[in-house]
Amino acid sequence: MLFESIEEHSPGVDVSSAEQLLVVSRYETLSEQRRRRLVGRVVPVGRGVGVKVLAEYQRREPAESPGEERWSSELREEHAEEAQRWELQVARDAERRFHRRR
């Protein structure tokens, strides 16, 4: 369910680990200088499980040599409102998929 939700709301899945209960999307290009991705985990909640979805944003840094790509993570405060909307949308979608399969 989490895999399908992240796949649908992002450019696709880059990493998926059933052992670590982890799904990471590919980076989505927002501009030449900025990109984002989703990191989702299945987490214990009370007597059950839930999903935790985090959006990570990065900015391109000046390269030290031609052809080199360097990215640094943005502070959460720089993108919190935008990230929270995206995270909530994906988490709710994953929960809906879970309940439909039950």
Notable traits:
102 residues; 2 helices; alpha+beta; 6-stranded antiparallel beta sheet
Number of strands: 6
Strand share of the residues? 35-45%
Give the number of helices.
2
* Largest β-sheet summary: 6 strands, antiparallel
Low-confidence stretches: none
What is the CA-CA span between the terminal residues? 12 Å
Let me know the average pLDDT: 93
Rg:
15 Å
Q: Give the topology string: H per helix, E per strand.
A: HEEEEEEH
Provide the structure class: alpha+beta
Global geometry = elongated
Number of domains: 1
Helical content class = 25-40%
Account of the protein in words:
The model has no long low-confidence stretch (mean pLDDT 93). The chain is α+β, with helices and mostly antiparallel strands and 102 residues long. The chain starts with a helix and ends with a helix. Helix 1 (2-8) packs across helix 2. It is built from 2 helices and 6 strands, in the order αββββββα. The radius of gyration is 15 Å and the shape is elongated. The protein has one domain (14-61, 70-101).
Question: Layout of helices and strands, plus pairs?
Answer:
Layout: H1 2-8, E1 13-17, E2 22-25, E3 28-31, E4 34-45, E5 48-61, E6 70-73, H2 76-101
Antiparallel strand pairs: 1-2, 2-4, 3-4, 4-5, 5-6
Helix pairs in contact: 1-2
In brief, what are we looking at here?
With 102 residues, this protein is an alpha+beta fold. It has one domain.
